[in-house]
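Below is how a single chain appears once it has passed through the pipeline. First comes the sequence as given, then the structure the pipeline wrote out for it. We keep one example in the README because the format questions we get most often are answered faster by looking than by reading.
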Amino acid sequence: MAHVGTSSVLDWTKLDIYHWLCKIGFPEYGTLFEQNSIDGSALLFLTENDLRNPPLSIEKLGHIKKLYHEIHILQLDNIPLIAKLGYDPYCVINNIPNECRREIGNYFCPAEHVTPDIYPLGMDIDDRTENLSRSKKLKPEVWKTVISLVYLFVVTWITAFVMVIVHNRVPDMKKYPPLPDIFLDNVPHIPWAFAMCEFTGTLMLIIWIAVLIFHKHRFILLRRFFALSGTVFLLRCVTMLITSLSVPGTHLQCNPMVEELQLDNGSYHSVWVKARHAYFIWRGAGMSVQGVRTCGDYMFSGHTAALTILNFFITESHEHYSIDVFIAFYITSRLFLYYHTLANNQALMQRDSNRTRIWFPLFSFFESEVDGIVPNEFETVGSLAQNMIRWLRRHWRIWYRLSMRREITPIPEKSQNSESVNRQYFRDRNKKES
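Resulting structure:
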């Protein structure tokens, strides 16, 4: 038996349908659905008329409406499955008659069954399906974003430390000349290309920050950026450490760090010295414009992983082999594509959630509350300012209440004792006068 909610609806059996009915509060219709052989695929195409008319003939109007509402939600969550079966999801969800079907790869719906209210004219089926597939609940989940930031922070430190290790293992340039490379052998060396790549990367980072400032779902974007960046550079640590390639160009001066520091007593091998070198690389983000100079970290290119579209500048600077650039471009672009394909397709996530948790643990954790495509919605400067003011007011009130609670202290016992003493004094005085 498949577990309801974790498997594809198409795999649901009659027993799964009964569990689903119990879950939504209609167990009394389990026998009725079983008698009519309603499984997952049949449930996905039930309409309100099917519930109302024979052979189901549900009599209570409230039950019909509530039950169809749950079926409608199920249809919205499984739009890709409906399309995969050859039906137009928009027609199925809006109860348009079954003349609406897919023919020769295109969607065809008769005009007499189309109304402007539910089927906008001139709207492409892909746009309609995309609108239906958009996420209906987008929680910021700031705490997950913080966890992804910590993940990236740890990975960058690991990367910096691995770069220190591979720098010390770089092959001797006198014994091991540059490897044959079809691009580097035919493209002249351009000295300013590598610096231009890093300056362009800085410009792209500024644009990315501007997008985050105005995007309504900035925390989801940040979470995905941190998770993908951390995963790519963690994979880069493995490829750098496994095999040390020779220096790709004779213009580069690369020697092991022990020779550069001239530490014959072997003190460089201490963890503390390597940690200081790793901090220097981490602080400069591995960029040559920040004074960072590393060797041996070739497979695969960290610059191309950050700037896949600018790999031409890296190749012409002769700072990496062509295979480094190609592998970095392929891994980064494919990982981004596969991640968002799974995130945008709720059916793929539900089909085998247990296997997804095993093979993609970070994805399952970070995308557990995202049920569709994240729309590109931006805030204006005015709305952004209003949100900032509202946020400051809310936190100011919290801080003010906490400060007021600290200032309000209970009456000390000394003052209470003095008051009782005064009362006793006046009593004694009145007795004497009387």
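Residues 105 and 294 are 52 Å apart (CA to CA).

See the next section for the split statistics.
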